[in-house]
Specification:
The chain is built from 13 helices and 4 strands. It has a two-stranded antiparallel ribbon. The protein has a two-stranded antiparallel ribbon with strand order 3-4. Helix 2 crosses helix 4, helix 5 packs antiparallel against helix 6 and helix 10 crosses helix 11. Helix content is 54%, strand content 3%.
């Protein structure tokens, strides 16, 4: 099930879904509905909607991701879900993470979710990715391991980074990267660069990834002033475009990034770490989108 761990089954029966095993409120609601159907004859989505006082069509579109559930609607459903107060608070945090239009609010919700021990226990991979993307230098140091002259030394790493990062933070990042096998060391202490794919599809990852991109865009702006012109490359094109051609432009950008990833994958002469950005964003209001 997307957004959650596989449900346990005992004696052929679906067990009560554990809210702390979920990263997506919709996935939990779907699992809860299926669980309730097995123990309550005649229970259905329509019955849940009626009991909660919300429209069946509305709830159906929420569960199929056509609508986001409002705080008011979720509060009505919460009275039926038989959750304790801690579980209710957590489900509300998942809703905020997915539906809030405020990035600071979503970041705050993510920080609170990270502190929930039951969530950390059930979702170690998510906690790992969130920490990896929390600070840009984690990703930069991991990529530095592919450099021919890389040294597993916070002081050396500090001297190589164009933006100052305290050696203490570098040491913490290095310890994390080695512990979680983003970087591996051979018998001589030399760094190896293992394959480790990171999937960022769920909302909990998207918020972390957005924060990472914000940091990188800030560094890109600073690079315009502090990096020699022959060591940076910035392209831009402002143009009026249709939705269809915008989708085509995104595909072209994605294909270009895949080509760059391919030619750099086994680059044994790597000398520096770059972050490649293809940025496309509207300068005018989008048709059909409310301001």
């Amino acid at each position: 099930m997307k957004g959650a761990k596989v449900q346990n089954k005992e004696d052929g029966k679906i067990s009560r879904p554990d809210i702390f095993a979920y990263q997506d409120y919709r996935a939990f609601l779907k699992a809860w509905i299926e669980f309730t159907k097995t123990r309550s004859k005649g229970f259905s989505l329509r019955k849940l909607a009626t009991q909660a006082g919300v429209g069946t069509g509305y709830l159906s579109m929420v569960l199929t991701s056509k609508y986001g559930i409002s705080e008011k609607a979720l509060s009505k459903i919460l009275s039926i879900l038989e959750l304790n107060e801690t579980e209710k608070v957590f489900l509300n945090l998942l809703r905020t993470l997915a539906e809030s239009n405020s990035h600071p609010v979503r970041i705050d919700a993510l920080a609170k979710i990270q502190k929930v021990q039951s969530f950390r226990k059930n979702n170690p991979d998510a906690i790992e990715v969130i920490q990896y993307l929390s600070e840009w230098h984690y990703v930069a140091i991991r990529e530095m391991a592919a450099l021919t002259n890389f040294k597993n030394d916070p002081r050396w790493i500090s001297r190589q980074l164009k933006v100052h990062v305290p050696q203490k933070q570098i040491a913490e990042a290095l310890a994390f990267l080695i512990e979680k096998k983003f970087i591996e060391l051979d018998n001589h202490g030399r760094a190896l660069f293992p394959e480790k794919n990171i999937q960022c599809f769920e909302q909990i990852y998207q918020v972390s990834l957005r924060q990472f991109h914000r940091q990188m865009l800030r560094l890109a702006g600073e690079a315009l002033d502090h990096t020699e012109i022959d060591s940076r490359h910035v392209l831009g094109h402002t143009v009026a475009i249709s939705k269809a051609n915008y989708d085509l432009a995104k595909t072209i950008m994605e294909d270009a990034l895949k080509k760059i990833a391919k030619i750099t994958k086994d680059d044994r002469d790597a000398e520096s770490v770059y972050h490649m950005i293809f940025a496309a964003f509207p300068l005018t209001k989008l048709k059909g989108v409310k301001p």
